[in-house]
Amino acid sequence: MFSWCPLDFCFYLQLMELFRIYSLNTEAGLGVATLSVIYASVIVSSMFLPQILIKTFGCKWTITYSMCCYIIFSVGNFSAKWYTLIPTAIILGLGGAPLWSAEASYLTMSGNAYALKAGKLGRDVVNQYFGIFFLIFQSSGVWGNLISSLVLKQQIYRATKEELLNCGAQDCYSRSPTTNNTNTQRPQSNLIYILLGIYTGSGILAVILVAVFLDHIPNDESENEDKKNESFWSSVLATFRHLKDDRRQVLLIPLTMYSGFEQGFLSSDYTKSYVTCVLGIQYVGYSMICFSATTSFSSLLYGKISQYTGRAALYGVGSVIHFCCFFFLLVWKPHPNHKILFFLFPAFWGLADAVIQTQNNAIYGDLFVKNKEAAFANYRLWESLGFVIAFGYSTSLCVSMKLYILMVILFLSVALYGTVECLEQDQPFVEKDLNQRKEIPDIA
Question: Which of 10, 165, 292, 357 has a CA positioned 20 to 30 A from the CA of residue 312?
Answer without folding.
Answer: 292
